[in-house]
Every structure is written in structure tokens, then in C-alpha cells.
Amino acid sequence: MKTNKRWGNGARVDDLDTGKKILLKSAVDCFITKGIKSTTIEDIAKVANVTRRTVYRYFNGKSDIIAALIDIERQRMFSKVFDVAKLYDNNFPLMLQECIWFAASYKPPEAGKLDLVSGANAAEASPHIDNDESDAYWRDLLKDPLDGYNERNGRNVNIDDLIQIVGRLVLSYRQIPTTKERFKASLLALSL
Fold first, then answer.
1. Could you tell me if 180 and 103 lie in one domain?
2. Do 100 and 37 reside in the same domain of the chain?
3. Contact 19/58 with Cβ under 8 angstroms?
4. What are phi and psi of 3, to 5 degrees?
5. The total number of structural domains that make up the chain
6. Residue 134 to residues 123, 127, 158, 184: CA-CA distances in angstroms?
7. What is the pLDDT of residues 54-98, one digit of tens each?
8. pTM
9. At CA 20, angle to CA 6 and CA 109, rounded to 5?
10. Are 32 and 42 in contact (CB under 8 A)?
């Protein structure tokens, strides 16, 4: 989609994706420096060298920017979670445990970047994390292995119930980081 919008010093950005990428990078810089809650649209505009009006041409507000950033990281994370799941094809409980741990302890691959969804940023980011998009990824990941597990073991674990639990566990362990050993011990305690 061509936009031909003015950018920064009067140069033009020729496509929507380029403009969005510049603004998202600027938002990340602001969120890392000031935190999500303290960052304003004005801050993002200033870092991107544009006006507030330009930011609003691309995004409906800060919540829209946060959602876009979370969506990018969600896609990156789940592509890796699917790789983790493949390692445990024949052991659904272990696969589930390893995938939850990976998602709960996932950090963006850029070295030195603050995690935008944990710590001080958690309250602002959380509504964008455990949502329908995340549920769809978990469903794609877990449905077939769960069906096989249920069939082999005479169980009837409901995928919708499982997805709700998994999403909440991931968020809980992101908010209160722990070691993998303590994580496994707490899951074992739940299974008693």
C-alpha cells in the first residue's frame, strides 16, 4: 500500500509498512527508556522525528502500538515454541511443560533489550498477551498432540480448558520469574 507521506525532515515514506516499522522501533526505544506507562505519543513522535499527527495516521493510539509490538513478539515466540514442541512429540505432558516454560521465560532475541511484557511494563502489556490471538496459537500447537494423548490414555482433557490454564500459567511465571527446577516442582504439585 503506497502512502507517499512526509516523514521527519520532509522526506517521504513510500509504503505503510516502512512508516509503521519506524514508529514501532521508536516506541520500543521509548518503552525501554521510560516504560510503557510513562511513554506518551508525543515521546514516540519525537524519537521518530515526526509529529503526533503522523503517529495517529499509522496507529489509533498507544494501545494500538503496544498490540502491534506484542503481536510481532508473539509470532516470533510461537515459531520457536513450535520447534520446542517437536522435540517432545511422544510425551504430551513433558511437551506441554517445556512449551509453557519456554513461553514464560522467553525474551526477545535482541541482546540487551528490556522485556516489554514483564516487570514494570506488565500491567500495560498484559491485556495484549493472553487474548484470542494467543489462544489460537496455543490451539494450533496443542490440539493434535492433546487428541493423541487423550486417545492413548483414555482421558478427556478439554482443549479450551487447557488453553485457558496454559495462558494464565505463562503470564504468572512471566510476572514472578523463577528457576526451571522450581517451575517444574510447582507443576508437579499441581498434578497431585
1. yes
2. no
3. yes
4. -115, -35
5. 2
6. 17, 11, 17, 23
7. 999 999 999 999 999 989 888 989 999 999 999 998 899 999 999
8. 0.78
9. 140
10. no
